[in-house]
Amino acid sequence: MNIDERNLDPEEIEYQRRRAERMRKRREALRRQLFIRKCMRLGVIAFLLVLIAGVGGYKLISFIGGKTKSGNAGVVDVQAKTPDDPSEAARQPIRDADNMEKLAAPSTGWQTDDRGTWYQNADGSFYVSGWKEIDGNQYYFDDSGYIIKDDWLEKDGEDFYFNADGQYDAAVKKPMVALTFDDGPGKYTDRLLDVLEANNSKATFFLLGQNAEKFPEQVKREKDLGMEIGNHTYDHQILTKIDIGNVSSEVSQTNEAIKNIIGEPATVMRTPGGAQNADVLAQIGMPVVLWSIDTKDWKTKDVQNTIDVTLNNVQDGSVVLMHDIHEFTVEAAEQIIPALVEKGYKLVTVSELAKAKGITLENGKSYSYFGEGEQTVE
Fold first, then answer.
1. What is the DSSP letter of 147?
2. pLDDT tens track for 205-228
3. How many domains does the chain have?
C-alpha cells in the first residue's frame, strides 16, 4: 500500500489503512455487480434464442407435415357440406404471442383453455377461420381457432346452429318473421330504421308513390340498409273500386317514382286494404303479399295493443302488418323488434322469408303467410 508511514503518527496510519480497505471492498463489490449484470444479459439472450428456435421448429414441423400429409386419422379434410358457405378451416401454425399458450397442449386432439375449445393437429398446427369435419361432425373455427358452441353463426345471409358440443346441427332452423309497414315513408320512418339497424334486422316497406316523392331520403336509406321496397299504389286507391284500366297506372306510376329515387322499381306489391280479385292481380303483374297478422295499429292507436297482438301471435313464417306513418306504431315497433330478436327470431323481408321457406314468388299471385298450416289474425 502506498502510505509513507515515516511522517505519520500511528492513528493516522491506522485511518489510512482502514480507508484503503474500504476502497478495495467497494471495487470488489462493483466487479461482482458487473459480472452479475453480464450473466443476466447473456441469460436473456439465451432464452430468446431458445424461444425463437422453438417457434421456428414448429414452423418447420408444420411445413414438413404439410408436405407429407401427416396428421390425425380422425381428421377428414373435406369441403364444407353447407351449400352456401364452402370456406374450409385452414391449418394455422403457432406463431405469435396470442397463441403461445397452445404450445403447452399435452397431446393431439381437442383442447380446452380459458378462451374456449380448439383442435391441435399432429403437426402442431390448429384450425382457424372456417368449417372442418372431425369424426363425422362439422365444426366452425373462428379466427383465433376456437369453435362456436351453443350459438348461431350468420354467414352470407344464412344461419347455422351449433350445439353445446360445438357440432353443427342442420335440423335446428332459426324462426323467421317479416315485419311490414304500409303507407310510408313519413316523418317517423327514420326512427323505425334506427331500431331495425341497431338490431341487425330487415323489414319490407310498402310505399305510396306520393309519399316516396315527399321523403326520397328515407327511401334511399331503406334501400341502403337492405330493406325491401314494395308498391302500395300511388295514392292509396282501393283497386277493386276503380276502373280496371287505372289499376296498372297506379302501379306503374308508383314504380316509376321509386325507380327515380333508388334506380329500380319495387319488387313486390300490396293492395290497399287487401282489396283484390283475379282481374286486379292480372293488371298488377307483380307478386302481391298481404299479411297473416293485422295489428290494427291505425285503428286502436294503442302502443301496448300493437305490441301484444304481435308478440302473442307471431310464429315462424308470419307476416305482420303495421304503418310507419304513425308515431304510436313506431313506438310499438321500437319494443317489438328487440323483443322478437331476444325470442330468437330473425327479422327478414317478405322475399327473404319466401325464399327461406322454398316458395317462389310469382307475378299475379297473392301470398299472406309462409309458415306451417294457416294463420289469420285480424
1. B
2. 999 999 999 999 999 999 999 999
3. 2
Q: Which contiguous run of DSSP H or E holds residue 30?
A: helix 10-68
Strand partners for 176: 346
Task: Of 189, 60, 74, 171, give the one whose Cα is nearest residue 125.
Answer: 60
Q: What is the spatial distance between Cα 242 and Cα 273, in angstroms, rounded to a whole number?
A: 14
Strand 176-184 relative to strand 318-323, pairing:
parallel
Rounded CA-CA distance 133/88 in Å is 9
Give tens-digit pLDDT for 127-149.
999 999 999 999 999 999 999 99
Which residues are marked as active site? Answer: 182, 323
Contact 103, 94 (CB under 8 A): yes
Structural domain contains residue 49:
no
CA pair distance 324, 191, nearest whole angstrom: 9
139: Cα separation from own chain's centroid: 17
User: Taking each helix axis from N to C terminus, what angle separates 327-342 and 303-313, rounded to the nearest 10 degrees?
Assistant: 30
Angstrom distances, CA of residue 82 to CA of 11, 174, 284: 98, 16, 38
189, 320: one domain = yes
Q: Within a domain: residue 246?
A: yes
* Residue 185 preceded by cis peptide, ω within 30: yes
Examine the domain organization and report whether 259 and 330 are in the same domain. Answer: yes
Q: Give the three cell numbers for residue 145.
A: 381457432
User: pTM, whole model, 2 decimals?
Assistant: 0.70
CATH number of the CATH domain containing 301: 3.20.20.370
Domain range for 153 is 79-169
